[in-house]
Amino acid sequence: MTQDERRKIFKKAWVNSIKKDLYPKYINGSNVAFNYFYTELSKLLYPENNINDELTFDEYEKAGNVMIRAMKNDLESLGGAVTPFQNQTLENVIKGDLVVLIIENELLLRKLGSRIVSFIYLGNNLLMDSCMGSVINWLDWKENPEWMPRLLFYLHVTQGAENDIKYMHKGDKWFRPYDKADKLIWEDFWRDI
Amino acid sequence: MPHIKVGQEFERIDITPLWKNLNMDDELDDDTLFIELHCLLISTSKFRFTRETKIDEAQYVDDTVEEGRQYIHKRYHPGPRPANWIHPNEVRINSIVEGYSKLAQKYGQKHFDDFLRNLYTSYPTPDPNISVIEYLNSLKEGRPQFHFKWSYIYDFMHSISRYFEIRGETL
After folding, report:
1. Which residue among B4, B39, B147 places its CB closest to the CB of A134?
2. Residue environment code for A24-63, b if the CB has 16+ CB neighbours within 10 A, otherwise e
3. Is the ipTM value over 0.85, yes or no?
4. Between residues A75 and B157, which one has the greater pLDDT?
5. A154 has which bridge partners?
6. What are phi and psi of B125, to 5 degrees?
7. The dihedral of CA A51, A52, A53, A54: what is its sign?
8. Where are the domains of chain B?
9. pTM: predicted TM-score of the whole model, two decimal places
10. Cα separation, A31 vs B5, whole angstroms
11. How far is CA B159 from the centre of its chain?
């Protein structure tokens, strides 16, 4: 994949994910930009035989943050390979993975609806926020004395693909990436991001 | 990828390794402008955490303990302000408008203004006779719960309105 192709795909998924939040079907609810980005990326990298083109975001859009606290359970139920962090480093995370952390100031954030924050890993300790609007350096932010962030778990998007383990399907349509060939495409895309 | 140093902050999207690696500046079209506008909004909000970012909110504080109650009291009764004190919301909107001016230089003033004006005036509302700000305000009435998505859209539209207001144009 050339860098021009990579940019066009990333950019298209990025723009569409932003529009999903700027022009939402339900204005009071969660931001869904990074979820939508993954979906768009999947459709652009694997345009055929892909269940993502049938997904709707209505329920996600309507839900407030309080209602998506069970993200880990949802991901596991859908067959996602969730790996808890054994230590507070991103050394085992690879580009394109979903990273989830919690902010833990018990005094100042006691009444916050949800303290779970999601990011897309960009490599080199850099994380793209869930609104797809900024990049932070984990090495810096982990030192923040007020928010007290702690890494919870990460999701290898292609885990299982090396063994052709296919998750989620509807008829002949599958959640992609799902096999060795898809894994190669996914890794090729993220390699030079 | 070059090594990222501790303390190296990316207050704008176009100075991130992501932007450089994807050669985003090679294609400064409307999609790229739209992305930069969005990132400006998000980067000036608390969504862009840094090592120094403060929580600075009273509504989430544990008010069942004395320390929490004192924090809330101090937030709502800050005492005399310095003469040059500016409300944080005003500081933020000024930062966004300043960012708009920089993007106008990058993309060309007329093109930028036309794009931004169109973004505001074409924002869908249920009634063409009410402005987008009136529409957004009506959605907030009677709903004390904070919604980040609503806030993001409001900030976007409000900052565009302010940008043109400063330039003598009412949208």
Report:
1. B39
2. bebbbbbbbbbbbbbbbbbbbbbeeebbbeebebeebbee
3. yes
4. B157
5. A83, A99
6. -125, 155
7. positive
8. 13-48+80-166
9. 0.93
10. 30
11. 8
